[in-house]
User: What shape does this take?
Amino acid sequence: MQHHVSRSTRGKIMGERAGFRGCTIWFTGYSGAGKSTLAFALEDYLCSKGIPAYVLDGDNIRHGLNSNLGFSPEDREENIRRVAEVARLFADSGVVCITSFISPYLKDRESARKVHEKDGLKFLEIFVDAPLAVCEERDVKGLYKKARAGLIKGFTGIDQIYEPPANPDLNMKTAEFGIDESIQQIVTKLEEHGIVPDHAIDSIKELFIPAEHLDSAKAEAASLKTLSIDKVDLQWVQVLSEGWATPLTGFMREAEYLQSLHFNSAGNGRATSQSVPIVLAASTADKERLHGEKAITLVHSGKPVAILRNPEFYEHRKEERCARTFGTTHAGHPYIKMIMDSGDWLVGGDLEVFERIRWNDGLDQYRLKPNELRKKFTELGADAVFAFQLRNPIHNGHALLMSDTRRQLLEQGYKNPTLLLHPLGGWTKDDDVPLDVRMAQHHAVLEAGILDPKSTVLAIFPSPMLYAGPTEVQWHAKARMATGANFYIVGRDPAGMPHPETKKDLYNMFHGAKVLELSPGLQKLSIIPFREASYNTKNKQMEFFDATRKEEFDNISGTKMRKLARDGEQPPSGFMGDAAWKILADHYQSKK
Assistant: This one.
């Protein structure tokens, strides 16, 4: 009997990424080489990217299907034969089947390959190549020691041979590389074989022109027609060029725009979160002037910034864009006003950026790219990174939440959880506290020890602020994943603002956190909901609110805080550090 459901059909319905990806990844090597560690790490990685994967190893095969087999050469051969047949069925179903068995004999592994290839299924043999001495050092179960003492017979590497692959698809030297680096090598190999899309690789796609091609690119740019961009557009160029919106390769073309607008995603399939469209508007005059060009030079304040390759112009349906992004089209919303005032066309294309965007405002050293932040966290020995997005000053309630998050992660077994304190540094509305003031205030908080400077990295997130509530908070979370963050603290009413007319909250204050828990493409990010902290008038400090003692608490709102600062009054002791408060108060009093 033949299956009525084709592999193509299975590929469309299995997982979150379109395309048939069924195959078998066969890990082989000595006991203790690291096969199972890599296999389960690979399974976790692929599943987090929306690609179905399943590990077969001794625990789920030897204790069930093959429980009647021993470790004689004949039983080992039959064990691998059965594993190969089961793996073939998994692969045929559209699953990436990952096997972790010593499988010491060349002929058995070759037979497993042929079982797959005769059915047109891909089979990749990965040799987990760790020296026997290293494997013995890792032997937590003491099996090698027992084998050398003669207590275990037929143990591979001791009294039974292992035949290493002559030409494996990949040779993994686990004594030289860590798990994360090893997984990326494997995923890159899977991408070469068309098993996973390129944006499933956990690398950041920067869009800068390589130094060796820069002169020729600038010469070409001088010969191209130009399109002027404004400051907010330039901020989006920075976001794209540094890789915050990976896998995007430039401003969105129409298909990418529609995928983001309707499905909050980007790339092949719907597993990569991209909840806000990143687009470039153009006037009708610009569209008519530039239509048909193969490349355009983007210019800001007279300076060439980037080349936009293979540009595609399409209609800028502003009302639809605003309705889907913001849940309102009210022209009193500041970002909506910018959209409504912009061009009637959008132009997308691949970006090639000449150089890193610099603002020369004394803060560029804090504008670390995702790859630089990843390197920083590695240097610090961080085994967990928890990110806190903010566009407001830090009071001691915020600090309590961040410190408590670190405490929880330590209790979970992490050794060095590190805070990414990541204020938004792009465009904000006029009544928000300016970036330079916020950064000075954040520094004061760290210098006072209210937050631990040794376990905190302060950096600037270059994105403009949209004030798009739950839609935007998904973008904020996705961008922090690019830094390697695996925990994200979400506050009340994130990315929110009052309705321009009614002055009521435009978004439900709890929906941002709820949406992050539900959002496709963010599965690898653990969401830490905001716990309400209020000022305890009895203890004179910020504490987590306790309803059983509610009479002790006073909620010091942002409005009240700003009034105190403008009036030159001091907040209650313990609400905010003295130096941090002075910076904030000086700012508000200067605006009188």
